[in-house]
Amino acid sequence: MKVRGWISILKTGVLLICMLPLPTLCQDLQPVTFLPQWTPQAQFAGYYVAIRKGFYQKRGIDLQLLAGGPDNPPADMLVSRKTDFTTLFLSDAIKLRSRGFDLVNVAQIGQKSGFMLVARKSSGILSPKDLNGKRVSLWSDFKLQPLAFFQKHQIQVTIVPQTYTINLFLQGGVDAACAMWYNEYHTLLNSGVNADELTTFFFDQHDLNFPEDGIYCLHETLKKDDRICRNVVLASLEGWRYAFDHPAEAIDIVMTYVQEAHVGTNRVHQRWMLDRIRDISVTGDGNTPMGTLSSDGYQTVASKLKSGGMIDEVPKFNEFYFPCLDDSR
Question: How confident is the model at residue 304 (pLDDT cuts 50, 70, 90)?
Answer without folding.
Answer: confident
